[in-house]
Amino acid sequence: MGERHVRRQVPRWSELRPLVRVEVPAWRRRARVRRAASIADLRSLARRHTPRAAFDYVDGAAEGELSHARSRAAFARVEFRPRVLRDVSDVDTGTTLLGRPAALPLVLAPTGFTRMMHHEGEHAVAAAAAATGVPYTLSTMGTVAPEELAGSGERWFQLYLWRDRAATKDLVARAAAAGFRALMLTVDTPVSGSRLRDVRDGLTIPPNLTLRTLVDMGRHPSWWWHLLSTPPLRFASLDSTDGALADLVDRVFDPSITLADLAWLRDVWTGPLIVKGVLDAADARTVVDAGADAVVVSNHGGRQLDRVATPLEVLPAVVEAVGGRAEVYLDGGVLDGADVVAAVGLGARACLVGRAYLYGLMAGGQDGVTRALDILRADVRRTLALLGARTIDQLGPDRVRLRP
User: Fold this and answer.
1) Residues with catalytic annotation?
2) 158 annotated ligand-binding residue
3) Cα separation values, 271 from 153, 161, 181, 267, 274, Å
4) Structural domain harbouring 169
5) Model-level pTM?
6) If pLDDT is split at 50, 70 and 90, which confidence band does 386 have?
């Protein structure tokens, strides 16, 4: 009965416009990427331009996401102790990593699903890293094969040990033949962590075309067009990739690996060997004794075991245990250049970053990754200058501490 009293009218465009969500033209997006002043700005752009499942895969962590939150909270506890009346007119952010020069104490971490974030994927990340002068690490779970990433720049290859050792050995040989200089073995993934955002988003490879994803196409048409008009999204180093990520990890990765497998890999790989995923000083000493050239103190970005130890807090103990026999890197929660400076001051040789550059990739492809690296480089240089340090080597516990 009440409907007879409702007056109808033709909607005006000014009323419809707020309801229509169409991606901005590419040239405007590039301008916004260039104007981004922080990694947080790139994160906001990434969230706007990327489907929810892809964004959540990068942004999320395991279970209650406490480990990731604690990593960020640890960096919030950092206290810098600047020295004044120092000449910082010419600050040098360079260092050496595994005997090679790097423009920053920074390594681009291995990440899976990379072409899901942006169709340029690993090619964009590797090119930006090479132009900046920092190493890029291709993941076993990458969406391009090692042979496809030939080119300039320092390239490392990340490895998960598979149940099939012959296939693992073949993959290692392919990485060496393709020019990858260092091998990074990840040891904190015997089984997949419980990443609840991925479960709730129904994340699969390739993405399923459900009613939800069809609706999402209308909100992110450019992303979907690039996905559907470029080679199928897959894990390039695996023969079978269909299904949920957790199921794939548990099907392919070997949960029985031990120190003997590390010794086997040391015999197979003749270049620098890095072990990633160490959070215990005794474990760090053990893997160095077994031949590791570098150790990455890492909680896998909080994406494996929740409530695990916080990398920045255990870093000094690991550095002491290693005793200069291997380089020590830090991974987990690094989102700005001041974080990098803090970690180096507490003993790390360099930091690995993942989310920081993936936000840039989602925001604007190679331009976005380059912008993320530019932001991090400017952060590092400015923080060094304000600390009264002209070089990375001048950082130490006298300049950085963790507040209780």
Assistant:
1) 300
2) yes
3) 16, 17, 6, 10, 10
4) 26-402
5) 0.89
6) very high
